[in-house]
Amino acid sequence: xxxxxxxxxxxxxxxxxxxxxxxxxxxxxxxxxxxxxxxxxxxxxxxxxxxxxxxxxxxxxxxxxxxxxxxxxxxxxxxxxxxxxxxxxxxxxxxxxxxxxxxxx
Length: 105
Fold this sequence. Notes:
This protein is 43% helix and 15% strand. By secondary structure, the protein is of the alpha+beta class. The chain has one domain. The protein has a two-stranded antiparallel ribbon. It has a two-stranded antiparallel sheet with strand order 3-6. Strands 4-5 form a two-stranded antiparallel ribbon. The longest helix has 18 residues, at 85-102. The termini are close together.
């Protein structure tokens, strides 16, 4: 299922990735013939994978739109800034629905 959160595509396959950990060396033992190595796999869930992609997409974007900040600052200074409660409500509802879809993946 494709999921778009604030113009960021965070959809993708909901498979589980598995990474093989590097073998670790066991602490020295009393017996010279005894050798232990541990091979353990690390399993990454689809949610963790999704969050990693989201983090990468957000890191690639600028956190602040300087043009938008300038426009709002000028409107506030001029006393012409208007709050549109219906737009704010729709944005909150859309964000909530987008977050609700994350649990379905």
